[in-house]
Amino acid sequence: MKNTLAKIIVPVVAILALMPFVSSAEALIAGLLIALFIGNPYPTKNRIHLLLGISVAGMGAGMNLETVARVGLQGIGYTVVSIAGVIALGMLLKRLFKVEDEIALLITIGTAICGGSAIAAVTPVLRAKSHSVSVALGTVFILNAVALVIFPPIGHFFHMTERAFGLWSALAIHDTSSVVGATVTYGKIATEVGTTVKLARALWIVPVTLAIGYLKKDSNEGEDVKSKKPWFILWFLIAAALVTWIPALQPAGHVVDTIAKRLLVLTLFLIGLGLSRETLRSVGFRPLILGIALWIITATTTLTLIQNGFIG
To answer: What is the pTM of this model?
Structure first.
């Protein structure tokens, strides 16, 4: 009975998620409630990665490449420092909470760079066990869901400007999808800054993955391994370049941007559907505590630095 009901409700809510009156948080929560109380009868994992890439790339059509470049260059300093700091802190907390090395590293990399995308990129390099990947992704997805809901109210409580909120979201929220989802509700400038800084941060998947791959290669007696590449960043930049340097494309770019934002809301609904009871049970107590502690320290530290003018 539940399975039949879910097969009807899921497509209906998915269509509603494309409507302009449904917010990112509402879509995510709807997916989560359906997954927990009715169940998700459809496989959504592959669709999530595809839709996320398309939606982020499409949002590039609504941005100015010169602004993207300026914001990205301005943020490179604290991006490097924060990534290094989060990784160091994660390795320290791993010992404190006695979390398995592989799980701790995946959660830490996901927190430091860009959540599930970073975990997916590092997984084939580490040759990580499926259970470790599930635990890390589950932890990140849970915290993403929480962040998407609580970050905008916190930003308003501290009277953060759109630029400050966008920057904080990019530095403190794991996944690109949740950064965009949170900043879209805050304002256009917040979305532009948050998306740009997050994508610039996501570029660090490449050197970090290469570094891990090099170390892994040594430990495997020279055996080479492959990793996934964040191609959606390249398409985002291409879309931004087209509308920036060919003004005639800007009206079409706004249409593409609008469609991409609604597609992102649908993606967040699917992410909510992925947070099943099995996922929540698989996470376990210690990894979740590690992820929460790492996330809270990162979020509060960056918020303090932004509010006091040290980052901005």
So the answer is: 0.75
